[in-house]
Every structure is written in structure tokens, then in C-alpha cells.
Amino acid sequence: RGRSHKKLLEYLFFMWEPDALNGENEPITVLENGFRQPSVYEDAGLDGGVPLANSVGVSDKPRLEHVTKLAKQRGSVDPYPYRHGQLIVAKVFVGRAVPARATPVKITERAYPCADSVFRPRSHEACQSRNVLGITKPGNQCECSSRQCSWFVFDQELVLPEYVVDFEYVTKVSPFSYTSYAPDRRTHDDDVINMDPVVKPRPRMIALTEELLLRHCRVEALQQITVLNLHGNGLNGLKFINSMTALKRLIVSFNELTRLEDVNHMLFLEHLDASFNKLTTLEGVKGCSRLGYLDVSWNQLQYTREELGMMRKHLITLTYLDTRHNPWQKTETLRMRALGRLKNLEFLDGKPVTDEEMATALRMAAASRISSFAILAHARTDQVKPRALSLRSTAEIILASSHNKPARPLDDDSQWFVKVTAVNLDNQHLGKLSNLEKLVHLRWASFNNNDLTKIEGFESCSSLEELSLEGNCISKFEGLVRNPKLKWLNLSSNNLTILDTGMLERLPELRYLSLENNNITCLKGLQHAVELQELYLGNNHLANIREIFSLKPIPMLVILDLYGNPLVENTANYRLFVIFHLTTLKALDGLAVEPNEGNVAKDAFGGRMTTDFIAERLGHSNFIELRELDFPYCSLRTVDLGSGEMFLNLRSVNLEHNSLTSFGGLINLVNLKVLCLNHNHIESIVTKPKATSPANAGKRSGEPGNDYANPEMFNPVLTNLEVLHLGYNSIPSISGLQLSRLPNLKALFLQGNEITKVDGLEGLQDLRELVLDRNKIKCISEYSFINQWNLIELHIEENRLKDLSNLDHLQYQVRLYLGMNRIQDLSQFEKLESLSNLIELSVINNAVTRRLLHRPMLVFRMPSLLCIDGIPVSSDERTKSEMYFLDQQ
Fold first, then answer.
1. How many C-beta atoms surround the C-beta of residue 661 within 10 A?
2. pLDDT digit string (tens) for 648-693?
3. What is the pLDDT, as a whole number, of residue 410?
4. What's the mean pLDDT when you consider all of the chain?
């Protein structure tokens, strides 16, 4: 009698006789009308109670015998006709249960007047447990007899059907093995089972129209719709929803919604399911004042304080809220914060709200604002910063070691505020910083591990030197604009993303800044913290190594921590790169910077023109828009621009006054037209292979490909290059430059080098202008200009020419400059008579021009000349020259 009623509840199987009552339809009758009265079973010749069993074998035995008997009568060849069956599982209150008597008397309520139900154990002759250690148990008793029983309940109201189970017996032998077509059929079944499921296509509503909504809901007007299900469409907006003024239930799960503005001001809406979307804010449900059910799980909601504050103000009738699977700030305290603000909630995230939870949440909500009592209990009035080797904040150290609590006078309740210098309110569940305006002398403050979302309330704290806000929900780097003495700032473990907000410009004395465990992707803005000495940026989302360039203007940065950012793992030679660009560093990622690392970094990155170098100089990395680059006097030694795909629009490059020895990565700038490399150390277009030993040189001398001066051995590069400046590079030979690899070159400038002969121009058939001034050329060979038939202008001044032979290939020559050479004989000018298109000639400051006899000769013998030595040829001069030489004849 003392047992709980729950212990008297059992789940039993309905046991029915196929030969009695409705036969095979008896389970359906039970499901439709309930169990029969015990007297009905008694009148049918059965035991007088609702027949049940706690075993499938016991409850299904009558059916098995009945189906097997029918199969034999019909001559069925199926050895397992009973394979498929059905069970009714009922919840039964057995009440006072007694075992059935051994006498073969039918079970009736009259036979057991004091019992609510009777159970009959199953007799099991074949049980192996009846013979254990040679001892045979008497009668039909066995260990499993008490486990498998049939039950008879005398009150049908105590039996409630709950489940219907369809089942199949799995036999050891395949039921189809007895037929000749069994293998084929089995194979066919396997194929069907392995088929991909066929999902019937359902039209998706990408956008809503009034006509579509009317047809979908089968109504004549939008105002008649009270329930609308738009689950599983591709909707990114809910147009026309506002017109459904009577709508009470709206389901828009599994769509592409980012906001809910269209739901705003739906006064009768009570149920809203917006799960599995892309919502970033709940501002759109402000006007739904009767909303009681809201499901926004599986979205992109982040800002806990803002969303809860909105719901607290506008959704006062909300009783069910599901916010699971969103990237909330500080999810560990979300439940308590939500319950503290939404006091009518009954279910939150699928769990019922208990009274204990609600009381705890309300206490937390009451303590989420800073009160005078909280400041008084966690403040100190120390004037000197303690000297301690600790990583904790100064405010925490002072509060733990000092006993200088502010005294609160009875007559004046405000004087003690101005004496406070240190406040430590860590782990107080604070949601907002307030009541700090009276702390005008506050120097050290700590508010770690709270629920703060903004930096605020410090406008009056002009003496603030240290501030720690670690472990909060701050997402904006702002709020400290009137704290010029701030030297130490900790904002680790927040949600900051950008730093370029102008706040660092207002903190001129900031020396320590910790921004670890945030979501920072860019370091722009840190260049304004010119006094910064320690910077901690570990475990953020910095992926581009070029962000380091924002730190170069900081002259005294000695400690930098970037560990845990993607750029650390994804950048080759990351450590050397940072050390090279930030030369003042003494420690990087927790390891001291060794002196030899600086030298290695200089060797690895010094004098290299890379994409990082260009981005640093230009201040951006939008290389695809570049048309020209100008980097003279940069001490460049190599060029490495990768494949050049980022510089497809680059047309002009000026790298004068550097230390390049070859074109290097410039050969990948396929669209380059003008290249200026004056005052470098260019030896060839590409770096030549290192010289082999004398022993191997003889062996390889006959191998093809070792004559690097032969232009035919090289593939073309810079196929669009038209102008090349290689002046003042101390080039001893033109052939060593491999210029024949530049097939479209039209202007070549080689002035101021050490060239002694003209060769290596065989592949430059399109050359129009050639400048060889200030070299050491003594003569021109017959092969020097053998392919330069398109050459129009040739400058070869300030050389050592004595002979003007072998210029007859220049048939289209228009201008020729031979000044300041060693031409001594007028007969040398006769070798120029074949240049029929020459219109300008300069031979000034040669020995042959001292007596000025060359001019009339050139005018007479070369009638095409229009200018000699920079002076135009007049018609009078031409007439006099002709008369003079005709008289000589």
C-alpha cells in the first residue's frame, strides 16, 4: 500500500485469440473502441480479463499457431507464413497482482475477489536451467518462468493502448530459397534497396507575390490568412507579410532571411519560427507585441546585450524562446542573462524554466550595474603603484594587498569618491559601466570577465593610467577619448575586429596594449600609437603578412606577439620577415630576437623587390590597377614578383640607381613596354649559371646549350618590351646581355658602359633607336648591324672610332651621331654616302672637324642631309658647296 502508483505501472503486449471475437480484426477494434470488458472475454469462453503478456513470444503464440494451421490447410509452400505481425503496446496499472492457481480453472474476477490482475508464468519444459549441476528442478518451474507471463486485468479502464508496432521475424534461412527464382528476386530486391531515394520536387518560392500567397493559402484576401507556412524556400525577404493583419502563426524556417523588418508591427502574431536562416539582428520583431513563441535557432545572432534588450522592451508576452546554435557572445552566461531580462519565459532553448533559475537570474540582473556600494567594497585609495613581478593588473594587485579602503562619512556621501584611485570589479556579471563620473582621480581599474559590450563611462577619469577589460563582449575599439595619461590597456578576449577608429590618436602615452583572442583582421590604425612598446595580438585572424607594415612607424616597439594567427603558419620565413621590417624588436612570439637573426633577415629580405615591398611603398596591394612603378635609390638586389599575374596592366618600370645584376622577376611582366635600369650592375637578362670547374669545362665545351652568348639558345621574354635603358651598368659586352631574347625591342640605351665592340644585336630586327654613347668602341665590324635594317637613329658619340666602315647596312638610317670620336680623315665620310636617307649627322669634336672642311664636303656628297653638327643646312650653303666642288673638278 505504501508503494507509489508509478511502480505499479507496466508496459504489456495485447494477447488476442484469432479464433475468437473479431478474429484477425480484433487489434483494429481495440485501437478504435478500446479494450473489451472482462465479461465479454468470459462469454467467449476465454479467461475473464483483458489478455496481456510481458513477452512477445507469449503474446504472439496464438497468432503463430493460427497462421501456421491456415497455411497447412491452404497448401502454402511458404515455410514462414507468420513472418509479419503487429503488436499493441499498452500502459497497464496492474494494481494488486496475484499469481494464477495451479488448478486448471478459468481466471475470472469472481475467482480472485481481492485482486486487480492475475499473472500466469509460462511453462518451459526445454529450458536448460532446469538441470544445473545434475540437479533437476521439480515440476515445470525454471529460471525464466517468472519472467515470461501472461496477464489478465479485471478492469479495462486500467489498460490504455499507446503504441502499435509492426515487426518481422528474421529467419536463419532466406524465405525465398525454396523457389527456383529466388536468386534473381533477391538480387532485384538488393538493387531496389540500394537505389537513391527519390524526393518529389517541390516548387520553391524565391520571392513572394500577392497572387502567389493567395494561391498558396487558398484564400481570397491576404487579411483572411491566420496561419502561413513558408518552410524550406529560398526567401530572402517577406514582402506582403505586413498585409496579413490577422496572421497569428508564421513559419519561415530554412530560408535565406537576414533580417525580419517585414514582420514588424504585426500586432496579432503569436507564433514565429525563423530557425535555420541567416539572421543577424532581431530588430524586425519590435512591433510584435503579442508574440509568445519565438524560435531563432541556427542563425547568425551575436550581440547578446542588444538582442535581449530589444526583446525585454518589446516582447513582454514572450513565453517560449529558442536561441540555440548562434554565435552568441559569452554563451556560458546567455541563459542567465536571458532569464534576467525576459521574466515571463517558461521555456528557454528547449528546457523549462525553474523557479530557482529565475531567482538566480534576477539576482544577477540586479547586480549587473555598478552601484556605490559595489565601488565602496572593491575600491582602494593607494597613491603609489606597488612594485610586483606579476602578470595581474595593478588594480587587482592593489585590491589583494592593500587595506586602504575609502572611508564613507556619514554627513557627506560623495567626498569618498574623489579619493578612489583603484577599482577592481572582476567577475561581477556587469552589463554596463556606469556611476564612474565621480571617480575623477581613478588611476587603475579592472573590469575583467564581465558582460560589457562597450567602453564607456570614463570621460571624467582623466587620470586613468591602467585599464583592464579582458573577457568581455566589446566589439568596438572606441570610448577612451579623454584619457591622455593611459599607458596600459588590456582588451583581450573580446570581439574586436578593426582598430582604425581614431581612439589610439587620443592616447599619446600608451605603452602596453593587449588585444589577444579577438577577431582582428587588420592592423591599420596602430601606426598612431607611436609610444607603444609592448603589443600582444595572439590568436586573432591576421592572415596577410603585409599587416606588419602598419607597425613600422612605431619607433620603440620591443615586444610583439602574433602567435596563433594564420599568417604565422602560412607565411614562409615569417619570423625573419617580421624581424627584418621591425628592427627594434627584442622579443617576438615569446622568444628573444638574437643578433644573428637580424643578419639572416637582412640577407633573406634585404634588397628584394617583392609584392610585399611594393605594397609597403604604395600603401595598398591593388596591383592590377598599376600602370607604372618608380623605385630608384632603393638598394634593390633582386626582383621577385611571382608569376606576374597581379601586374598585367603594368607598362613602365623605373629601377635606376639600384644594385640589380639581372632582370630577375621582371621577365614575368609580360605586358611591360618601358624598362629603365640605368646605374645598376646588369650583366644579363637572366642570371647565368655558375661557372664549372676547369676539369668539367673541357668535357662540356662541346655540349649544346653552353654558349650563353648565342641568342638562338634562349626563349623570348618580355615580348612586349619596346624601350630598354641599361646606361651606366659597367657592361663590357653587348652579347653577354642576351638582348636577342627581346624580339620587339625598338629603343635600346647602353650609354656609359665599358663596351668595346658592337655585337649581340642579331635578334633585334625591329630596333629603331640605339644609343652607345660614352663607351670604348674602336670599330664597327661587318656583322655589327647585319640585321638592323630598320634602325633609324644611332648614337655612338664619345667613343674611340677611327673608321666608319660597315655602316652601309643601315639603309633607313635617318640620324647618325658620331661626335667626340677619333675620326681624322675626310675620306671616312665617303663611307657614309650609301646612307641615302640620312638627314642629320653630327661629327662634332673629332680631329677631322677642326679645320671645318668636312661640312661643305658632306653637303655636296650627301644631298639628303638637312642638319650637320646641330646646324641646319641652308640653300645658300648647299649652292656654294656645289660650286666649290664643281670648280675643283
1. 15
2. 999 999 999 999 999 988 999 999 999 999 999 999 888 766 554 4
3. 55
4. 86
Q: What is the DSSP letter of 560?
A: E
C-alpha 165/C-alpha 154 separation (Å) is 25
Three-state DSSP at 415 gives helix
- Compute the Cα dihedral for 176, 182, 187, 191 and give only its sign: negative
CATH number of 5-123+146-174+184-194, picked from 3.30.390.50, 3.40.30.120, 3.30.830.10, 3.90.228.10? 3.90.228.10
**Residues 6 or more apart from 790 whose CB is under 8 A from it?**
765, 766, 767, 768, 812
Residue 725's CB is within 10 A of a number of other CB atoms, namely 22
**Per-residue CA distances from 360 to 2, 309, 427 (Å):** 37, 19, 16
C-alpha span between 314 and 286 (Å, rounded): 5
What CATH code would you report for 210-366?
3.80.10.10
Where does 46-93 have alpha helices with state H? 56-74
SS3 category, 30: helix
Contact 794, 818 (CB under 8 A): no
Query: Is 311:335 a contact under the CB 8 Å cutoff?
Result: no
Q: Which residue has the cell 478492469?
A: 155
The CB-side HSE value for 475 (13 A sphere, CA atoms) comes to: 10
Two domains, one topology: 210-366 and 377-409+416-595: yes
Question: Mind listing the pLDDT tens digit for each residue in 248-261?
Answer: 999 999 999 999 98
> Could you tell me the residue ranges of all domains in the chain?
5-123+146-174+184-194, 210-366, 377-409+416-595
Residues ≥6 apart with Cβ < 8 Å to 65: none
DSSP secondary structure code for residue 74 in this structure: H
Q: Would you tell me how many other CB atoms lie within 10 Å of the CB of residue 847?
A: 12
Instruction: Give the cell for residue 160.
Output: 490504455
CA distance 337 to 657: 66
Of 672, 764, 661, residue with least CA distance to 711: 764
Distances (CA, A) of 428 to 356, 363, 447, 687, 743: 20, 11, 8, 67, 76
C-alpha cell at 252: 519561415
- Within 8 A by CB and 6+ apart from 733, the residues are 709, 755, 756, 757, 759, 760
What pLDDT was estimated at residue 870?
Answer: 92
Q: In 582-683, which residue ranges form alpha helices assigned H by DSSP?
A: 595-605, 611-618
Block residue for cell numbers 573580446? 494
Angle at 489 between CA 486 and CA 494, to 5 degrees: 145
- 716 phi and psi angles, rounded to 5 deg: -65, 145
Average pLDDT over residues 63-71: 85
- The alpha carbon torsion through 30, 33, 35, 38 (nearest 10 deg) reads -130
**Angle value at C-alpha 364, between 361 and 365, nearest 5 degrees:** 85
Of 9, 24, 93, 16, the C-alpha closest to 47 is 16
Alpha helix ranges (H) inside 451-526:
none
- How far is it, in rounded angstroms, from Cα 122 to Cα 140? 9
Question: What 3-state DSSP class applies to 799?
Answer: coil
- Give Cα separations from 185 to 77, 182, 191, 428 (angstroms): 17, 5, 10, 72
Max alpha carbon distance in the chain (Å)?
167
563-605 per-position pLDDT tens digit: 999 999 999 899 999 999 999 999 999 999 998 999 999 888 8
**Torsion angle of alpha carbons 274, 278, 279, 284, nearest 10°?**
-70
Q: How far apart are CA 243 and CA 260, in angstroms?
A: 15
853-879 CB burial, b ≥16 within 10 A, e <16: ebbbbbbbebeebeebbeeebeeeeee
* Fold classified for 377-409+416-595: 3.80.10
Ordered alpha helix ranges (H), 389-457: 394-401
| Average pLDDT for 402-427 | 80
